[in-house]
Input
Amino acid sequence: MLLILVVVNIVENIKANTKANCFVLALKPLIIWYDATCFYCNSKPTFFFTLLAQPTSKASFKVVPLGVKGGIDESNLSAYLLAPVGTTEFICLDAGTIHSGIQKAIENNTFKANHATVLKQYIKGYFISHAHLDHVAGLIINSPEDSAKNVYALPACMQMLQNFYFNGEGWTNFGDEGKGFLVKKYHFNTLQPNVTTPIVNTAMEVKTFPLSHINPFESAAFLVSKDDAFVLYLGDTGADEIEKSDKLQLLWKEIAPLVMSKKLKGIFIEVSFPNEQPDDKLFGHLTPLLFYQEMNKLADLTGVAAIKELKIVITHNKPPAANIGKIKIQLNAANMLALKLIFPEQGRGFTL
Output
């Protein structure tokens, strides 16, 4: 058992140490097997953990990213499908890109069903964190082909959806409230902050929290639960320090007990810019430095040991590609909390 633990550590250390070329060559077959197992299983090989007699964490949710970027590429904007494992009861967390993301997921064999089935049957509702176009464009464009379902948002966001998009002028009002002729395909389900709400046609519930995104403009975080398993999704947000807000601190206090009890399976949180971005050009977003400032605040509430290996899905990286690469390098280099950082790819599923 000790030998196997040493092998695991050797593989991890060699992968992080580019100078150890001779050892890399010697253990290359093991590293290839190790990486392949990590990729296809989305975890370290259970072989190691079984022999080490350590319990594996059972996945509670599956995720299919329909879009992962924070701008420019209209075919790949923020949208994440989330469902309890073993079901197709998906909700869509933000809806910047829908059609292209479903197509990509089918191409990657993430979905075996056709496009219409995923759009009309699998997706049970949309959760919109805020009404910026990169978070709602897919919802709007796909509405004529969609099926009846709920659109969930906090009051201010819902008003923007009704006043500026689904208003009978800029776009047909496919909802059941607002201006113009009401098609009544979508039920506009207005959420209230800090209230737990059942998610229609699923076994999940949601609790919603306001965020600050260019104060006083509001975004939202959705705490989704199924039984005793939770996932937290944050829409666009600035750091409390920059936003002159306490929204994130209040959110960290809310989820700290879930982190300590290991009921929180993961956090989706944006990191839009590299550290070089000036504070006055952040426009309500995070950098790796600000991300870790906020994660350290959460660790202060939970203890460092509790937050170790917590799965963090990094969202909303803004192009160009050089900046996205820099964000990843900066996040990995500063990961003193030993978080399990996940960089999602459009159409490639994973579990939490």
User: Anything to note?
Assistant: The chain is about 35% helix and 20% strand. Residues 38 and 44 are 5 Å apart (CA to CA). Residues 1-54 have pLDDT under 50 and may be disordered.
